[in-house]
Amino acid sequence: MKSPVFAYAAPNTVAEACSLLADDEDAKLLAGGQSLVPLLALRLAAPTTLVDLRLVPALTGITHDQGVLRLGAMTTHRSIERSPLVQDVAPAIAEAAALIAHPQVRTRGTIGGAVAHADAAAEWPAVLLAMDGHVEVTGTGGSRSISAGDLFMGPFMTSLEPDEVITSVSLPIDGREIWVDEHQRRHGDYGLSILAMTYQLSDGLITDVRLAVAGATGSVTRAPEAEAALEGRAPADSNDAITALAAELSYTSDIHGSADYRRDITTTLFQRALRAAGERSGQA
Amino acid sequence: MTQPAEHVSVQVEVNGRRYQRSVMARLTLSDFLRDELGLTGTKVGCEHGVCGACTILIDDEPARSCLMLTVQADGKKIRTVESLASGREMSPLQACFQKHHALQCGFCTAGFLMSATALLEEGQPTREDIVETLSGHYCRCTGYSPIIDAVEEAAAKEPS
Ligand code: FES
Ligand code: FES
């Protein structure tokens, strides 16, 4: 047994989970455990209490209602990838889920866990930012909704209060185009760069662009200058935006790749996204 | 009100047999299977979710047993590599592994077999599906092609 000793509880309700969190400031939530259990094994995390959400029935399930795709926080990546509903209303989201790690991890890992973990090289935070998604959270003091832009504060940091539990993730399905792509050194690894983009296409022009990058920079981030440079342009007329994206982000260097390499990869991912936009607008 | 505790009681069905045990909450499922139940067919390579050696089936879906606490499997049905053969007779998938020399040291094999088992149970996979599923496993010996070939032949034989 490699992980430190902790006390464990598996409440049946969100309210109970919140009060367990409030009772112990070193408590942590356990969702699918695909990030937390290795952190425990490596002793990078040492919570005194683990509050497991697996027995809270209200946290799973996928619905589509009034233009919002709502994913229960404990919904696994695998069930999102395979959901006929998601494949129907937002196939790009099902495909994004399939980019995460390996099938054997996707069967257990959850969207709520991944969002709360806020790894700088994870897919969901980028998707949420680009889609202007929200998370619904509940704490001892009540419930609220947090937009992706207000949620991610930095690598492994969110604006969640210590006693708050993410109950679901909401993604607007409003006819905007969605594109998610990434590059991994080995299939299933963390992305060296992950790019998520949403936009409107009208008369062959791109408008209302939201562009998010993860993996290539220290934390998941929007790229406002590239977005502005793309606004109102045709996909083929995007050199300014490509230059802006390369210049405005601070790309990270580590053993997996240099900053220059990550910048090049991000540029390539952006070009692919633009090529797809060109095909979608029928004037590639 | 659920009281947090360091010890937990778990009830699982493993390869068709029911077990009830009191374990430490921090005990991983891989250690539980090997050390508590003596099912040492499941191998532990990296113990943090990278290699796939510890893959088992939980309610028919492949998962890494080193990335699960035993208590997370409470009430679930688990299958390990020990469930595949009947007596001394190998399953068709195992026989294909033997035929194609899909193992050398064998350390990774239990994990590959369990992921492949789940894949074959889902239907008729293409070679691409096989590669995608097996990409979650490391093998330091075979170079993978024999493993993919073995699963492909097993898929072709599968009555579906
Ligand atoms: S031992 Fe579990 S993935 Fe390596
Ligand atoms: S046969 Fe040795 S690691 Fe795969």
Automatic annotation (TrEMBL), chain A:
Residues 1-176 form the FAD-binding PCMH-type domain. InterPro entries: CO_DH_flav_C, CO_DH_flav_C_dom_sf, Diverse_Substr_Oxidored, FAD-bd_PCMH, FAD-bd_PCMH-like_sf, FAD-bd_PCMH_sub1, FAD-bd_PCMH_sub2, Mopterin_DH_FAD-bd. Gene3D superfamilies: 3.30.465.10, CO dehydrogenase flavoprotein, C-terminal domain (3.30.390.50), Uridine Diphospho-n-acetylenolpyruvylglucosamine Reductase, domain 2 (3.30.43.10). PROSITE patterns: FAD_PCMH. Keywords: FAD, Flavoprotein, Oxidoreductase. It holds the Pfam family FAD_binding_5. The keyword Methyltransferase does not apply. PANTHER family: XANTHINE DEHYDROGENASE SUBUNIT C-RELATED (PTHR42659:SF2). This is FAD binding domain-containing protein. It comes from Klenkia terrae.
From TrEMBL, chain B:
Keywords: 2Fe-2S, Iron, Iron-sulfur, Metal-binding, Oxidoreductase. CDD domains: fer2. The keyword Cytoplasm does not apply. The keyword Membrane does not apply. It holds the Pfam family Fer2. SUPFAM superfamilies: 2Fe-2S ferredoxin-like (SSF54292), CO dehydrogenase ISP C-domain like (SSF47741). Residues 8-84 form the 2Fe-2S ferredoxin-type domain. This is (2Fe-2S)-binding protein. InterPro entries: 2Fe-2S-bd, 2Fe-2S-bd_dom_sf, 2Fe-2S_ferredoxin-like_sf, 2Fe-2S_ferredoxin-type, 2Fe2S_fd_BS, Beta-grasp_dom_sf, Diverse_Oxidoreductases.
